[in-house]
């Protein structure tokens, strides 16, 4: 039998091969057992997610073509799945043929075979003596079976990886020498690690350093400079013959040195930046809960080996390919592999002979979206399915085009266009006029040299190095701030962020729930002191009084029955577990960041579970001194429906006081349900009184009192959880479960799903409960959040809270963290709206309210809403391939220059200076007019939102031209994180959220978002400063001398050699010093940049660079140049419009050698004067709006000594070029007298003072024409 191999998919697949929409896929039916292969109706749900998953773990690069690679990812999975299915079908035919041959060859043995077929869920077992008492298991007609194979096939090592889902669990455990209860021992772990290696994917081969250097030599501006270098050598020979000028040869050599030095610098910075980004992966290690040596501990996921027994929970990422041992409503999202958006419902049975299609296997990188379970690791590292798919798609690479890339591309395009236009003018002028009317003035070879000069002048050689250096600086800052950015270039997007939509729990709060009070009946209440790090003793007394409190002690005889039931329910209806974990002995939270090889590690028990469950655990264990583990043993659990993001409640069934091992029908079953009071109260028919055991029927008065207590607590920022219970006999419970199983089995056999608005309670009752009481919980706000929100508001960035909490609770927390500020929402009022259905007209009316009592407007809700494009979902229209090749080429060019997804030409809504609170349940009734009204408020809170509603909020913001940054840490935040312009996940959040986010805050600090925004603005500012510095001297002041030489007939004021030296040494070093500038004082008081209007190079910057600074510098340099000529007895009328008659008509009493020395000295003077002017330009452009004296480079927050070092370096270069004799003779420079540079010093001071006055007027009159013209 041939060995199964994973074949890689070639890049030249045909179109039919790339469309895998007619192939089978994993079962995603909403039932626990897969009955048949799904139809092709779900084909449209495939998404391009695999490559983002592989990029996140550094396996492959980004996409070249989104549509092509979306299909390429799916075909990788489908190729493996179909190939394996064919192999399994071939093996199945082989087994059946062998079995028939046995029966034909030994008919007498055939009579001894016993065939047992009980029903469709049983296995067909055929014992055979000819196989030495081994058993052959053949599947029945359904896919619902635990399929088992012949052991001689199982033992074939080539089939081990694809049989782990079929063989009995006992044999699988035996194969890996594991134990379902105790897990692996240390010795076996060491043995398996030696055999199977570490559980990590082999990263793609690092790019060759030589190839990286070669690319730096050829890409960007260097490619253009190579062309100029070629023509420089050609101008020496053969164009320069018969008397070649050695200066042109030296010019070519200098250009080569310039290109190599530029490439070396960019190469060094790129390698350095790669190392910093690579270190981010060590900052966020992935952990796994595993059984080792009989204990459940947390380890690094890379330490997993086959045979490990792991536990998976909601929100976690599956750390390896695993077979499920036990599962409780377990569902995983495998869209990263299969493209299916619907979650896969997991089972413990094999549902398909194909390893890739069976639902008892969960794959590495899959995300747990519901339930819990235990599994045994079967494949790790490169042996996982993701490892195989990574190998198949590893050769595909590309680079993600970000906003920063597009800005650089626009700059490059502008430079190329300007250079080509100038060269075109040069040659038109030469061919149509100079070569005819002024023959001999400029030769063909001379015009080539002038063209080279145009290329060198227009190319800002310092820009590529500046961009590389600024990204390296950003990487270092992010590393120190513990902010993990998946792509450094995305930091620039923070410059445009106008909205931060933030989750509450774990983002604005510390995500440490604390029980503050127990409430029961109508008056009963027990308060618990709160102890936090910031407030050592905060109690409920700090808030307004809820009711007249009674404070019973915790003595057993004084505790009311309702309170005892609450404590018992908190112990039993609780899913927390104790997990030993290794921590650094030095107390470092993240050992991968700061620990060394000599560090010691200590074992610590960690309480893991839902935040509310952990709070209840600590209350029972710490405050009430209850042995929770003993309570659970005494009252064993027999059924559970765990909390999930859909149901938002938890229900358990326990046998009360069961001390014997037999579960007889006379035992009492306690069913406990906890959840939101408004949800569970509707399921109750009775409640317990305050101080007695009497149970009374629920009245409307009691419901109103519970709702009032919940509202009052919510206004103070407390979360409220209600608890109800029901007792029944074990026989009654058994009857309910049997009825539930029978009903479910009937629907499964019919392949139908029970459609009901009621949640599936696993057979437990849904009504007739007794209301026990409520818990109030407090999740304190992070202390740094209020200041961070204020800083964001000063930066004209709105912060909107999006939470699932009650509106009163959300509003209370929003007030504490300044999202609803005193100046706006509290003093002015908070807006809301009420939805009313008019039964007579059938219309839906929306009443816009202020402070719930003043009606501002009544709006008739329209059914017309504009469509929204969801990121990652392609519609038929936008997937249509254009037939016109020119349109495709033009669209491709525009893609690299302009973001195709940005919203353009939309006027921002005028902000309403009030706050607004919107309830998620009302969003389905909102039309575009209502969304405009809500989103135009200055302060916004969304409460009781679902994941779909949070996604809708983000899309509505995006539709109105806002640049949205979304924060979150939970599984339900992932869709919004993916849709937003910038998704910011928390390190303490789930793997789902971290997978979807663009950034991860490793310290969970909300203020780090504001720091990142400041960094993004600083990056944009510094790049603009580099451009405004390079363009006047490096382009304008070097281009004008060439045009003056051609059009006005004057001697060339600046030689090409000096122009190159100026661009590559004087300007480059100073521009690199500019990128290390610190943020200006007003950087966080400016409004966000408008993405489609604000560019690195815009008309304001060009006007300031060329028409203002460039002309001043040119005038100063020409003044020094002509002053020197005048001092040598050469008046201006002997210079201008002389062309080839220079020194002849009018005559100049100088020899040709003297005139040559005068010209070379004048060129050196122009060069030095230009360097002096650029030094003052450097000091002036350090700030955009703030005065130099408030942001000086010598001391204070604006200190930047690299500026001074740059000026010193530029001075040294000037001295070397004009004073060293070798340079004088080789490149025709001359020593410069200081008196001819003094005018440049005066003009430089004037330029500096002029810019200071301009900045003052911009600050003083922010709405003036001058302010609008400011760059």
TrEMBL record:
Subcellular location: Cell membrane
Source species, domain of life: Eukaryota
Start and end residues of each stretch annotated as Disordered: 1-49
One GO biological process term: sodium ion export across plasma membrane
Domain Cation-transporting P-type ATPase N-terminal: 163-237
Single GO molecular function: ATP binding
Keyword presence, Cell membrane: yes
Keyword presence, Manganese: no
Protein name per its UniProtKB record: Cation-transporting P-type ATPase N-terminal domain-containing protein
Species this chain originates from: Adineta steineri
